[in-house]
């Protein structure tokens, strides 16, 4: 069953046509890698699929409903309820501790403070960053930030996990660990996983690869 779909979407930034006429359909439980050269529109496609950005034309559908026409509040609610997003460079809240950052999506969804803190620490332990649970994001290395960002995205058991270069700042051992947890989210929880990546290792483990070139989906590798 198709869970997430972009139909002929276009997105421009000034004179830059980041996406022109991209259509992709992603099935429930699938692990999809979006690859292609820098500037080819990978992040923009991810942002449009995850409701962070609205394309200028075309449509985005999630779970049988059109989401690109929803207002900001409704798209934010959808992201909190159904999506987990690993941003490039982590984008954690600098004033909060690492553990508080990871607990935040649970609190937004109405879970209790103690339960959220407990679950957040469990994820930090799995990502081998429990030692920095009480530090602020500014004190962390790039690799630690990325692992915390992955923990924060997975903590709610989201229907769809979106990740922008989740292994980019990691050495190969840490990268494999992060990849393993993203794949487990799909295989164990049934999450659908969409990963923008330059990492051949990540692409090799995906069910399917969508190759972007100059703002278009140039091909699909099964
Ligand atoms: P990729 O993820 O493949 O590197 P992006 O989707 O980030 O590609 O960018 C596609 C094109 O759109 C690039 O030319 C990039 O510079 C441009 N772009 C992306 N985001 C913005 C933005 N917020 N403002 C202006 N240009 C942007
Ligand atoms: P990538 O190439 O992997 O997408 P970038 O460093 O280009 O990574 O993008 C990081 C952020 O900067 C994104 O939010 C993107 O939308 C924005 N961005 C990318 N290109 C531009 C640009 N030319 N002008 C303004 N913002 C941009």
TrEMBL record:
GO terms for molecular function: ATP binding; ATP hydrolysis activity; transmembrane transporter activity. Pfam families: ABC_tran. SMART domains: AAA. Gene3D superfamilies: P-loop containing nucleotide triphosphate hydrolases. Keywords: ATP-binding, Nucleotide-binding, Transport. One of its GO terms (cellular component) is plasma membrane. Residues 4-221 form the ABC transporter domain. This is ABC transporter ATP-binding protein. It comes from Actinoallomurus iriomotensis.
